């Protein structure tokens, strides 16, 4: 590539960044979509329907109690529980629940440390994982501040899905073997299917056409999923209302008691999951 082409390419990139065509000017990511998620913690009741649906949709193996106690868990989505008053044996407010999955960071710390580029950034704003390329170094797991990457310690074919349980496996997702890293993909198979259908019909992907398994299974509709590049989408309006910026959680103008924040936002990893919660008074 000649110097003129390089300069022209850089000028086009800077123009796109200034016009909002790129989400992160420093990340060099020209996005086609930016799939993001908003989770209303006031609506989450900790039922674990989302994590159960994730197991079924993405062919996750149940490792069992003994392996789980050894730190060999395999769950792309988990429900974390927090108690506001540790001094009380039976807090009146009960536990607070927080669904935790891969945050699909725009400036992901897991990507640059992979020695074989098995994890990379997609034009959809996702942190993708190439299982056939992964060598199981686990550098990405060590560098992930959210601890949402999991190493496949065993081959679970016979133990997890004995006859005839293998018939319930999702044919759109491969069954991973031992020695590779796994993580939440925002149900990328559903994203690909919706994009292919929209392309065949010569149209754009409609808002609500893509719904990951966790959002579909949530009985309280606490999880909202969509493309923030679509200005008319519900998720885009949620993010604009909250005006989430790095290091600052701004309040919603339409609901002064509702706050939106992103976990570990101060690390500048640009997570794609926003949590909403109403400010509560101390009891």
Give a concise summary.
It contains eight helices and ten strands. It is α+β, with helices and mostly antiparallel strands and 283 residues long.
Commentary on this structure:
The structure is a single chain. With 283 residues, this protein is an alpha+beta fold. The chain has one domain (20-278): Alpha-Beta Plaits. 23% of the residues lie in helices and 15% in strands. The chain contains 8 helices and 10 strands. It has helices spanning 3-18, 49-57, 65-69, 139-143, 157-160, 188-200, 213-217, 234-242; strands at 35-40, 78-83, 95-100, 119-121, 127-129, 150-151, 181-182, 223-227, 258-261, 273-278. The strands form 4 sheets. It has a 4-stranded mixed β-sheet. It has a two-stranded antiparallel ribbon with strand order 2-3. A hairpin with a 5-residue loop joins strand 4 and strand 5 (127-129). The longest helix is centred in the first third of the chain and has 16 residues, at 3-18. The protein is globular. Mean pLDDT is 82; it is low at 16-27 and 244-252.
Tell me the number of strands: 10
What's the gyration radius in Å?
20 Å
The outline comes out as globular
| SS-derived structural category | alpha+beta
Helix-strand string: HEHHEEEEHEHEHHEHEE
CATH fold title: Alpha-Beta Plaits
List the helices and strands and how they pair.
Layout: H1 3-18, E1 35-40, H2 49-57, H3 65-69, E2 78-83, E3 95-100, E4 119-121, E5 127-129, H4 139-143, E6 150-151, H5 157-160, E7 181-182, H6 188-200, H7 213-217, E8 223-227, H8 234-242, E9 258-261, E10 273-278
Parallel strand pairs: 1-10
Antiparallel strand pairs: 1-8, 2-3, 4-5, 6-7, 9-10
């Amino acid at each position: 590539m000649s110097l003129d082409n390089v300069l022209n390419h850089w000028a086009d990139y800077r123009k796109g960044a200034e016009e909002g065509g790129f989400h992160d000017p420093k990340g060099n990511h020209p996005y086609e979509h930016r799939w993001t998620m908003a989770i209303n913690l006031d609506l989450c009741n900790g039922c674990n329907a989302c994590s159960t649906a994730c197991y079924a949709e993405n062919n996750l193996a149940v490792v069992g109690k003994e392996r789980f106690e050894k730190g060999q868990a395999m769950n792309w989505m988990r429900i974390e529980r927090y108690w506001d008053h540790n001094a009380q044996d039976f807090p009146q407010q009960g536990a607070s629940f927080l669904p935790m999955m891969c945050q699909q960071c725009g400036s992901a710390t897991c990507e640059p440390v992979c020695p074989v580029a098995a994890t990379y950034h997609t034009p959809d704003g996702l942190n993708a994982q190439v299982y056939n390329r992964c060598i199981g170094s686990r550098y990405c797991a060590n560098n992930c501040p959210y601890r949402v990457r999991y190493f496949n310690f065993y081959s679970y074919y016979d133990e997890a899905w004995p006859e005839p349980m293998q018939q319930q496996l999702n044919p759109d997702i491969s069954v991973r073997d031992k020695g590779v890293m796994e993580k939440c993909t925002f149900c990328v198979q559903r994203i690909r299917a919706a994009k292919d259908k929209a392309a065949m019909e010569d149209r754009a992907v409609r808002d609500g056409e893509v719904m990951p398994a966790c959002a579909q299974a949530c009985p309280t509709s606490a999880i909202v999923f969509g493309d923030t590049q679509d200005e008319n989408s519900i998720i885009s309006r949620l993010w604009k209302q909250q005006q989430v910026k790095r290091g600052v959680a701004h309040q919603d103008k339409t609901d002064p008691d509702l706050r939106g924040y992103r976990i570990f936002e101060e690390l500048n990893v640009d997570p794609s999951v926003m949590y909403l919660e109403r400010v509560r008074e101390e009891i």
